[in-house]
Write a structure and sequence with these properties.
globular; 0% strand
């Protein structure tokens, strides 16, 4: 039996990717005191983490304790996230080689190159734990979460063990020296956002749904909390699960637990298509908005808001094309070739959620 397409989750993905795009685009085009910063758009990353926990529970429902489920899960996750990421990481390598003067804080040292492809956090020359493709730091968390999730799949109470393990890691984080950078990175308190997404997924699977007024109230509360964070001031990593994670969870709950529409009007189908391309948008926008900035400067553009709007439109259009003609055919072909369908319920899930 085919599982229904969760169009609300695709809308959340588009919101998260668009928030990150706006954050990076505004950083390039707008001044630091612009009104756009009334909302901390980087919280789009936290929305992605909550979504990830939700989707993993949705896709693996009924598989905990089943033989072979962990191996199938790892293969499918690797085939889903790695090829597009490796493609854009390779493009970043080429960009550094050809246009190094336009790339900030990036070098092609062998250790950075290898660990970037391997989803392993590794310090750059400036001390930051960012891979070649800077936004790939979130993929390092995603990969860690997937491996931990796979380790929990052989056990019927695997989700409880996974949650407990993440809690222990977060507690240990305060005492870990920064020189243990991999464990220090993977134990950051923001990993609890994956567990929050798992909890949201369990509520969904139990049939919990919100009325329209409840969904609207949660969305408004999420936005209000994010704006309050800006007024309070900059946050540190240890409180991020509260300052960004709680609003992200509320926003995700407002849509994930809202009833799915029986019919998708054309405008909503376009938004869902944007959600389909959200991963491509997240990976590719670094290239498109920087190219747009260079073009805008060459043309002598003087209206920064117009430049930002054009850059974001171009980034979204490029992502839709890249998803349609590159990412989806590539991932589908690899999954048909290497994924193991027998007894795997994820084959019944919509391709967009895999």
């Amino acid at each position: 039996m085919t599982r229904p397409l969760l169009s609300n989750i695709q809308l959340l993905r588009l919101i998260a990717a668009a928030a990150v795009l706006l954050s990076h685009g505004a950083d390039l085009f707008l001044p630091d005191d612009s009104s756009v910063w009334a909302v901390p758009w980087t919280a789009g990353v936290d929305i992605f983490f909550v979504i990830s926990g939700f989707v993993m529970v949705y896709l693996t429902h009924g598989q905990f304790g089943r033989r072979g489920a962990a191996g199938t899960f790892v293969v499918r996750r690797l085939l889903r996230i790695a090829p597009p990421y490796w493609l854009f990481t390779t493009l970043m390598v080429a960009t550094v080689l050809l246009f190094g003067e336009h790339v900030r804080n990036t070098s092609l040292s062998p250790d950075i190159v290898v660990t970037s492809y391997a989803f392993v956090p590794w310090p750059r020359a400036d001390g930051s734990l960012h891979p070649l493709l800077s936004q790939g730091w979130t993929l390092n968390y995603e990969a860690f979460f997937y491996l931990a999730f796979a380790a929990a799949l052989p056990f019927r109470r695997g989700l409880a063990w996974l949650s407990a393990g993440f809690a222990v890691l977060i507690i240990l984080h305060a005492w870990l020296p920064e020189q243990w950078f991999m464990l220090y990175f993977w134990s950051q308190p923001m990993i609890i956002e994956f567990i929050a997404g798992i909890g949201l997924g369990l509520l969904f699977l139990r049939g919990i749904r919100l009325p329209l007024w409840g969904s609207v109230a949660l969305a408004v509360a999420a936005l209000a909390l994010l704006m309050a964070v800006v007024r309070i001031g900059d946050t540190i990593a240890f409180v991020r699960p509260i300052s960004f994670g709680v609003p992200a969870l509320l926003l995700c709950a407002s849509l994930a637990l809202a009833p799915e529409p029986h019919h998708l009007p054309r405008w909503r189908r376009w938004l869902v298509a944007g959600g389909d391309a959200s991963y491509t948008l997240y990976l590719s926008h670094t290239f498109t908005i920087n190219a747009a900035l260079l073009a805008w400067q060459r043309l002598g553009g003087t209206e920064p808001w117009l430049g930002l709007a054009l850059a974001m439109t171009g980034a979204l259009a490029a992502a839709l094309l890249l998803y349609r003609w590159v990412e989806r055919p590539m991932v589908d072909a690899l999954q048909r070739r290497f994924a193991r369908p027998p007894g795997d319920r994820t084959r019944d899930a919509p391709r967009r959620l895999r």
